């Protein structure tokens, strides 16, 4: 009996490690750009640890911003029936959610901000998250400027949103002074850091 219990425990544990799901909600428009390239390196690290990974490109989806109708406070869904349903489903299933964006005029892209606003539908009328506990989030930012702290501004906006959703941070990573993927690919230390970030996020 004890041996059986032990075996079962191991299987459950192994299952969790094998099937940890990491999604990257990518708010950048350029699929071969520096943001998606940085995300790919993080996901490579997560995959090394056996995680399933997926990039959700917001620019491929058709959705609007939050309309503030508060339908989601009396129903367990958003009134707008659009591609945000894909994002909601992926978030329900994910263990780790990465939010990635290039800096556009000192902020995250409009697509990512609209997506964040729509996550209001995952919070009930008492401002309690409808999501299961134990999820983690990370922030990935690229910018042209060498040193301006845009990443910090973006990070704090995402952190503020995630606090409502009861999702804990697993950190952030940013690349400064990049204008295209080639710039990022020269930053070998940062790429190694990104891979390690991905490994740690699922460990
Ligand atoms: C519309 C637009 C606005 C931008 N605004 C800023 C900015 O305010 N600060 C900055 O450092 N870089 C800015 N950039 C540069 C991008 O953030 C940077 O090159 C980023 O790495 C591009 O990511 P991508 O290769 O994934 O598209 C801007 C780029 C665009 C296209």
What is the first-to-last residue Cα distance? 30 Å
Please, how many domains? 1
CATH architecture assignment: 3-Layer(aba) Sandwich
The CATH topology is given as Rossmann fold
CATH class equals: Alpha Beta
Structural class: alpha/beta
Helix-strand pattern, N to C? HEHEHHEHEHEHH
Mean pLDDT: 93
Helicity range: 40-55%
Strand order of the largest sheet: 2-1-3-4-5
Question: Rough shape?
Answer: globular
Q: Return residue spans where pLDDT drops below 50 for at least 5 consecutive residues.
A: 1-11, 13-17
Number of discrete helical segments: 8
Share of residues in strands: 15-25%
List of distinct ligands in this structure: flavin mononucleotide
Total number of beta strands: 5
- Biggest pleated-sheet summary: 5 strands, parallel
The CATH superfamily appears as Flavodoxin domain
What's the alpha carbon Rg, rounded to whole Å? Answer: 18 Å
């Amino acid at each position: 009996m004890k041996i059986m219990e032990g075996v079962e425990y191991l299987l459950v544990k192994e299952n969790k490690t094998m099937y940890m799901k990491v999604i990257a909600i990518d708010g950048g428009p350029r699929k071969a750009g520096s943001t998606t390239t940085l995300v790919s390196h993080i996901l490579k690290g997560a995959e090394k640890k056996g995680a399933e990974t997926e990039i959700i490109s917001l620019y491929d989806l058709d959705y609007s911003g939050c309309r503030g109708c508060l339908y989601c406070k009396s129903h367990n869904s958003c009134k707008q029936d659009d591609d945000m349903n894909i994002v909601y489903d992926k978030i329900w299933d994910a263990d780790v959610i990465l939010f990635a964006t290039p800096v556009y005029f000192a902020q995250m892209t409009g697509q990512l901000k609209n997506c964040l606003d729509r996550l209001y539908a995952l919070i009930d009328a008492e401002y309690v998250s409808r999501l299961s506990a134990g999820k983690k989030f990370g922030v990935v930012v690229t910018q042209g400027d060498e040193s301006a702290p845009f990443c910090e501004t973006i990070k704090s906006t995402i952190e503020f949103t995630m606090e409502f959703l009861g999702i804990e941070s697993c950190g952030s990573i940013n690349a400064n002074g990049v204008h295209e993927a080639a710039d990022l690919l020269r930053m070998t230390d940062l790429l190694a850091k990104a891979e390690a970030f991905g490994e740690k996020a699922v460990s």
